[in-house]
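A quick word before the example. In earlier lectures we treated sequence and structure as two separate objects. From today on, think of them as two lines of the same record. Here is SigE family RNA polymerase sigma factor written that way.
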Amino acid sequence: MSQNLEGEFVAWASARQRSWLRSALLLTGDQSSAEDLVQDAFLKVAERWSRLRDEAPDAYARRVIYNGAMTRWRRHSREPSRAELPEVIAAPTTEDWLSGADVRAALQRLTVKQRAVLVLRYYEDRSEQEIAETLRVSAGTVKSQAHAALRRLREELALEQESLDGEEIR
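And the structure line, produced from the sequence above:
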């Protein structure tokens, strides 16, 4: 890659790194996995930069990130769990609820496709058509996944809110 192309790529990647890292973190729930997804996307875009720079590098990188998240989820869902679950799960605190930790935790309980649809729609503010193109599904699938995901989130958050109602606010 020439120095001019390399400079363009570095400027492009620097401008997008933080927002994609946040999206990937919402998708995976894990900082290191999110960083890996974004790094993989940057490497794949860099390999094709001379062609992509005039077309749609954002769309290509976004697709790499979301497809990578789905692939990781599939791979890890087949592996046996190695970690032992704690005997008692701590109830969420008012501070957690106010900081959005409950929303991030509830997002992790959705399927990867539902999580991807919600992050693309409400965090990245993408249209149904853009989401469908990114995830390579129909617009109807985007609508049904969003509907199911929002219903599940409402249920999860209502349960968590009920557990907070008994907690004393400091």
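Notice the following. Confidence is low (pLDDT under 50) at residues 81-94. We will return to this example when we discuss secondary structure assignment.
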